Every structure is written in structure tokens, then in C-alpha cells.
């Protein structure tokens, strides 16, 4: 591939699939969802926290149905075992770095106790939900810099407008050995006389550059050559796929936890379309949840009486999930700027590759 062909292939952001996006083209197109970030960018510390806040005042008391797909289980997240068993989420969904999980778990527990003083006493304990990727290449992860204050700041900053790229939990992420991070997208599905939205948010930290496909075009090998030409000492690592990706899918479609698990599995299709093959050391986890209804914690409250979508109607939602995840990964790459961190390590941002 010549430089001119490479530039032509990579100069525009791919538009994935034929389904239309929502008005923001973010996960917050699912009504009521908000996203907040806390970014730590201080020399050798390039890390942070990202939080997806559900449209429920107290998710411990009114839980959202959810499903989980562990595509490759190399990871240290918290809360997934109970989520897989009960099919519910009862806290905001937090993303951070691997060694930041304990601090964010404690922050979520404290947040729940403050809102529900009998949590862990007359009420059950809370299932804190914290997912992670390893940002140790760019950030000094051993300093365990993520604190409960970072989680609270992310929650307090949550809004419908979602910053993307090297922000929040995406600050130290590497994607296809370039700068990765947080990406989000949405797709709208029309069904008879109604429509449903599927939104995706990813924490993209996976892949080998040689494998990258940009909107279906295999550009990785040529990008590798371009990167080496720009910087002879460009560090790509050992060529082993040992990153991770967290893929969150939200919808306003009335699905039960089993159907949401099926939707979560389709995130793998969108991931594969970018060139990732989920290497041995890559933790690839997808979580899908619905905001169409809640499930009460109190046995005396009635369970929702809402008809679920028929199984034969799910294909468009599966397509939306795959397309939104793929689009979100491109957005993470497209928006991420170059970051230099620990021991002089740096990752080139997508836009930086084309600067003289």
C-alpha cells in the first residue's frame, strides 16, 4: 500500500453499517444514561476512572436487567460472578485500571451504604461492579494512584455529553499499539411502529497494529511502516496481543437477562471486524443491560409486567450491537491524542500519525 493509498484509507472516520445513529451517536442516546470521567494526567501517572450512571435514583433498590459475555477471561474485574448468576446490575458501571479496582469497589460500597444505611445489615450486601484494563505501559500502575475520590469525581461529572479518547479510564490505554481509550457510538433500530436504541461504550486497550482493519481495509502493516518512518525508536512492544477491551451495551428495548446475554455476545463480532482475534492475554468482556424497566429489591414490590421482545425479532438488535461496538472502537482511536507517560513510553494518536 502506497502512502497515498494509506492516507486515502485512513483520512476519514469509517461509518459502520446501514443503521442510523442516535442524535449524539453515543451510549447516552439511550434515554437517561449519563457518563462521567476523572482523568489523571501527571507525568508517570496516566490513568483514571469512567462511570456509566444508570437512569435510576437508587439502583441497589431498583436493579437493571443485564447479561454478560466473557469472550476471553483474562481480567480482574469485580462483580461479574453475581451479575452472571442473577442477571442484574445494582450500581453504576465503573471502568478503571487493573490495580485501581479495589479502591473503586470500596467507593461504590461506601456510596451504596450512604444511600441505603441497612446495606450489609438488614439488607443484602451490594454487588459492586468495576471493570478494568491494564494501563501499565503508559502509567506507573504500581503506585495504585486511583482512589475513591476519583470515582466520586467521575460520578459527579456525569452528563449526556461524552468525551472520548484519552480521557478517564481510557487515559493510559493502548489500542492496536496506538493510543486507545474511551469510545462510544449508538444505532437505532426501527421495528413496526416503534424504534429502539442500542448504545455502546468501550475501553479499548487491545490488538496488534499489524492486524488493524480500518472500516474493513487492512491498513495495519502499512501503518506500522509509517510509524517506524516517523520515529525510528517507535515502541510497539513484543507483538503479543495482551491488552484488553471492556464493551458496554445499553438499550431501551425490553429484553430479559438471557436475551441481554445473547446481545452481549454480539459485541465480539464488532470487535473482530477491527482485526482483533482476542489473544491469550487479552481480557475481552461484554456487558449488556436494558433501561426499559427495573426489578425491585423489595419482595413486597410487584415485579414489572412488561412483555419482552420475541426471540425472532432480535436480529436487528444484534446487528446494532455489533455495529455500535465496532464504531465505538474507531471513535476511541480517532479521538485519542498522543500520550507520553511512564519511563518515556508513548503511544501515537491517530491524528498525530498524519502530521509532518
Automatic annotation (TrEMBL):
<dbReference type="InterPro" id="IPR016117">
    <property type="entry name" value="ArgJ-like_dom_sf"/>
</dbReference>
<keyword id="KW-0645">Protease</keyword>
<comment type="similarity">
    <text>Belongs to the peptidase S58 family.</text>
</comment>
<protein>
    <submittedName>
        <fullName>D-aminopeptidase</fullName>
        <ecNumber>3.4.11.19</ecNumber>
    </submittedName>
</protein>
<keyword id="KW-0031">Aminopeptidase</keyword>
<keyword id="KW-0378">Hydrolase</keyword>
<dbReference type="GO" id="GO:0004177">
    <property type="term" value="F:aminopeptidase activity"/>
</dbReference>
<dbReference type="Pfam" id="PF03576">
    <property type="entry name" value="Peptidase_S58"/>
</dbReference>
<dbReference type="InterPro" id="IPR005321">
    <property type="entry name" value="Peptidase_S58_DmpA"/>
</dbReference>
Amino acid at each position: 500500500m502506497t502512502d497515498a493509498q494509506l492516507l486515502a484509507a485512513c483520512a476519514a472516520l469509517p461509518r459502520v453499517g446501514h443503521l442510523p445513529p442516535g442524535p449524539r451517536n453515543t451510549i447516552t442516546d439511550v434515554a437517561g444514561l449519563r457518563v462521567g470521567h476523572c482523568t489523571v494526567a501527571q507525568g508517570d501517572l496516566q490513568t483514571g476512572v469512567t462511570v456509566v450512571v444508570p437512569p435510576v435514583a437508587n439502583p441497589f433498590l431498583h436493579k437493571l436487567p443485564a447479561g454478560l459475555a466473557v469472550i476471553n477471561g483474562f481480567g480482574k474485574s469485580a462483580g461479574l460472578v453475581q451479575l452472571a448468576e442473577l442477571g442484574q446490575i445494582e450500581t453504576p458501571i465503573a471502568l478503571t485500571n487493573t490495580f485501581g479496582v479495589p479502591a473503586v469497589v470500596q467507593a461504590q460500597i461506601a456510596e451504596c451504604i450512604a444511600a441505603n444505611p441497612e446495606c450489609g445489615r438488614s439488607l443484602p450486601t451490594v454487588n459492586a461492579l468495576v471493570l478494568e484494563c491494564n494501563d501499565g505501559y503508559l502509567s506507573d500502575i504500581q503506585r495504585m494512584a486511583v482512589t475513591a475520590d476519583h470515582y466520586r469525581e467521575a460520578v459527579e461529572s456525569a452528563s449526556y455529553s461524552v468525551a472520548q479518547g484519552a480521557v478517564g479510564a481510557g487515559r493510559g490505554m493502548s489500542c492496536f499499539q496506538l493510543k486507545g481509550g474511551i469510545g462510544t457510538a449508538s444505532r437505532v433500530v426501527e421495528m413496526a411502529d416503534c424504534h429502539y436504541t442500542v448504545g455502546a461504550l468501550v475501553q479499548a486497550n487491545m490488538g496488534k497494529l499489524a492486524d488493524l482493519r480500518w472500516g474493513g481495509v487492512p491498513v495495519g502493516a502499512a501503518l506500522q511502516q509509517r510509524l517506524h518512518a516517523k520515529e525510528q525508536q517507535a515502541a510497539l512492544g513484543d507483538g503479543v496481543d495482551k491488552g484488553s477491551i471492556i464493551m458496554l451495551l445499553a438499550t431501551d428495548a425490553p429484553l430479559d437477562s438471557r436475551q441481554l446475554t445473547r446481545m452481549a455476545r454480539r459485541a465480539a463480532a464488532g470487535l473482530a471486524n477491527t482485526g482483533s482475534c482476542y489473544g491469550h492475554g487479552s481480557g475481552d468482556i461484554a456487558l449488556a443491560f436494558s433501561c426499559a424497566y427495573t426489578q425491585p429489591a423489595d419482595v413486597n414490590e410487584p415485579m414489572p409486567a412488561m412483555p419482552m421482545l420475541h426471540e425472532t425479532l432480535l436480529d436487528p438488535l444484534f446487528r446494532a450491537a455489533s455495529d455500535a461496538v465496532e464504531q465505538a472502537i474507531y471513535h476511541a482511536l480517532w479521538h485519542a491524542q498522543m500520550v507520553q507517560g511512564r519511563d518515556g513510553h508513548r503511544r501515537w494518536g491517530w491524528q498525530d500519525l498524519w502530521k509532518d
